[in-house]
Amino acid sequence: MISPDGTEDFLGEGIIPIPSAEEIRARSKNKKNKKKRIIIGVVCGILVVGGIAGASAYANAKKHNDADDSLSEAIAVRRGNFSHTIEGKGKLRPIDSVVANSELGGTVKKLMVSEGQEVAKGDKLFTVKNVGISDTRSSAATALSAAKSSLAESNSAEHRAKSAALSTKRSFSKAKSALLRADSSDDMETIASTMFVYQSASAEYKTAVQGIAAVRAARQTAQAEIASTKKALEKIDKQMKGATVVSPIDGTVVAVNIKRGTALVPSSGASAAKSVAAEMSAVEIANLSSMVLRMSVSEKDVVNIREGQTATVNFDALPGVTAQAEVVRVASRATTSANVGASESLAVAATGGDAAVSTGVVKYEVDVRFDSPDPRLRYGMSAEASIVVGARKEVLLVPESAIIQEGGRAYVEVTDKDGSKLDGRREVKVLDLGSGEAAIESGVRVGEYVSSYPDTSDGASAEGGDVIAD
Known about the structure:
With 470 residues, this protein is an alpha+beta fold. Helix content is 35%, strand content 34%. Among the domains are: 8-58; 95-126 and 248-284, CATH 2.40.50; 132-241; 290-386, Elongation Factor Tu (Ef-tu), domain 3, CATH 2.40.30.170.
């Protein structure tokens, strides 16, 4: 419905003005202009961002060419020994460690060692009281004694039965001979009397023989009972050996987790000596004649580490004390820990994601071993090791930051002593990079100066780098 003033009323919800044709054309033109301005703004924004990113990439790629000369430093080329080290931190642990548990459940009766005490293999650590197994052994011992008595009685009964059988056998033989003589006399009364004696002797002899068989069966039963009871006792005695727990190795008691009266659950294994990871650790013994530092290194560094490489260990608790060590293990499998850095958080947030998303940091365990540790060192102390992964003698040395890498080649900028005059870029042959230095084979001479620039890249490390060689 159109109102008198040229507006249309839609369902009584209000009056909406109807624009004229001129107003429609004007609005359309304004929208097009606004759209153009938005497009131009977006393009400009993209160009600005791209320009910044491009400039940043260009600056990083050409940092040596475009860096502020005031930030550079003239460093003399020298000849010396090159050493590339990889560092890592970790915790000290003994070369060998076991826990001594009891295979017998019960309660601790007597504790014979204390923490820090030196023990030898076979030394007693503690004893266990188990009333139930003691009663069981007592019953088994009583049963064995009864079985042995039964065997002795069976042996005596067999002897008596054999004597009786022998006596009845003689009586039977006499009665048989008498019967044969009476039979030839035709005296019926004598024959009848002799026959009665013969039959009685025969019955007695048969009974005696059966008696021998019976006592022999009783003897076999007693022998079987003895064998069974002995086997049960051997099993019980083996279990009761766990009542006295001894040290499985030479070492030092590093942990005692029991006291007199402590209730113990029997260990499930065949031996009371278990690894440190066992659930129940009554007494822990460690061989501290040698120690191991287990450290974590990055996947970039682990490829340069080999067993047998030398290392120097420093200890947080003992400043100035060092130990010479050797790499004894390089893990084949990585361990991943959750970690998130500020750059990752910003990147995720910029894309509209959750800034708290974590990323896996891949690390590899490396063990370095050193002998005759300082007696002040303790299991679990923090330490840091520097592993020598590359070494060269009598090579040209320049700062690693002086190396310019472009197109698979390496260059340095040769300058004068005060760095005020550049002699130009010169290609060099790099033998190795790492630990802040570069080992050079050719391209510069001792006494020349090269420009060294501060490393402005994020996350840069002096521990390693790509080797560029002809």
